[in-house]
């Protein structure tokens, strides 16, 4: 059986972990939501070079992915995210995937003052669902980090 001090120390360690993880998810989620909002307001497109096509199967469904890159002002841009990763795989509908294999190009929507914010110009601009879920999960972890030490201090004693 843990003493009250040991229980509090355990709760604080767990709270620090949950709080750090939650803060990371919260910041990343908010960054991605902001990127998606900026992208949804942009109508600027460019023909990118499409290459490296791949399929991903699972749960009875197949996803169609590709890499692309485009050049603006001598700088080469590709799919990226808020963490700074570049050259990411992008999922596109089958007909777009197939057409890009034939033509070697893909129409990409981007933000003119920050071309690293870009996506294939197919369908609705940047669905927010996953990004908002990250914000909610991050906020829940942060809230949990605040509550854990309080529960250890004032929770039911055995």
List the keywords.
158 residues, alpha+beta, OB fold (Dihydrolipoamide Acetyltransferase, E2P), 2 domains, 6-stranded antiparallel sheet, 3 helices, 6 strands, elongated
Question: What helical percentage do the residues reach?
Answer: 40-55%
CATH class of the largest domain: Mainly Beta
Helix segment count? 3
- The geometry reads as elongated
pLDDT averaged residue by residue? 86
**Terminal Cα span:** 9 Å
Rg calc: 22 Å
Largest pleated sheet: 6 strands, antiparallel
Strand content: 25-35%
- CATH architecture title of the largest domain: Beta Barrel
Write up this protein:
The chain has two domains: 1-42 and 126-158; 43-124, OB fold (Dihydrolipoamide Acetyltransferase, E2P) (Beta Barrel). Helix 1 runs antiparallel to helix 3. It has helices spanning 4-40, 94-103, 129-154; strands at 45-58, 61-72, 75-78, 90-92, 105-111, 114-120. Strands 1, 2, 3, 4, 5 and 6 form a six-stranded antiparallel beta sheet that branches. Helices cover 46% and strands 30% of the residues. It has three helices and six strands; from the N terminus they run αββββαββα. It is an alpha+beta fold and 158 residues long.
